[in-house]
Amino acid sequence: MRAAVVAALTGPDSLVLREVPEPLPAPDQVLVDVEYAGVAFPDVLRTRGEYQLRPELPFSPGWEVSGVVRADGGGFKAGDRVAAMPVVGGFAESVAVDARMVFPLPADVSFARGAALPLNYLTAHLALLRRGRLSRGETVLVQGAAGGLGSAVCSLADALGARVIAVVSTDEKAEIVRAAGAHHVVLAEGFKDRVRHLTGGRGVDMVVDPVGGARFPDSLRSLATEGRLLVLGFAGGEIPTVRTNRLLLTNTCVMGVASNELWTLEPDYPAEQWRDLIPRVESGAIDPLIGAEFPLSDAASAIRTLDERRAHGKILIRVGGGSQAPSRR
Question: By three-state DSSP, how is residue 187 classified?
Fold first, then answer.
């Protein structure tokens, strides 16, 4: 079978298309013939050996996929449409996945949308509901809102009845995040003052931050009393520090959201999240923002697009012959 393989830890251009042996699923795994693979930030890091989970070379990245079950197993039947999180190996024509990380994909949800859902939307679900305890009517500030994870947070927060303020780096990204569910859009430069104006000086109830870096101090200053700041990653490159006297004076808190670490401890939890999420997708309350598709032969360009922060929404790799990404509503 064909797979996009990392041959050296030198970045996105290390990906090459190769013929590799088909995976042999273990008894607790499901073999999925891949239609689409989603491109995630951990995939970028893995091309340089910078992610905490480091497979031996050569390996195929690919955290999330959609496709069709090849053979009965793990509670699924041959021919079932599924989305799945193999964590590694998704940039290939077939992948073996832990049965607990395979989720039924309804017939009215395209393979493209299915591949755009698992990692970003289940992470957003974990952040907003379990960690952040979001309530209807609260105000959420989303950093990095035009990316795959940021747009997923905007979409789900809107579906949950929150007021969403999105932070973007350029004016051209404003319409993109509005389509994802943001009610207000502000530029990263000077966002704190704009957020204060939009909230009448009160601040926001929650900040969701996958960026970190230089924005972090003003994200903290944007919180209302008893607000919470959720740390999802450091796409900005710099890992910020927290002056805890600020938390004391404002009764605010900073909390981490590490989805894979929690899923490892609670492997049945992703399926529970999926059951809560998928009706919102079927109803149209959630519609993944798909930015671009690349063929498997050009997986390096897909990774590079994310690495260079040119992604507007979710980046996909088209592997099989499934449906194309639907147009946005």
Answer: strand
Q: Are residues 176 and 228 in the same domain?
A: yes
pTM (predicted TM-score) = 0.92
Per-residue pLDDT reduced to its tens digit, 47-71: 999 888 889 999 999 999 999 999 9
Number of domains present in the structure of the chain: 2
Which residue shows structure tokens 């689409």?
36
Distance in angstroms (rounded) separating the CA atoms of residues 294 and 115: 13
**Domain presence at residue 169:** yes
pLDDT tens-digit series, residues 97-151: 999 999 999 999 999 999 999 999 999 999 999 999 999 999 999 999 998 899 9
- Residue 252 near residue 220, CB atoms below 8 Å: yes
DSSP label at 165?
Answer: E
CA distance 119 to 128: 14
Residue listed under structure tokens 């600020």: 246
- Which structural domain, as residue segments, surrounds residue 47? 2-117+288-318
Query: What one-character DSSP code corresponds to residue 23?
Result: P
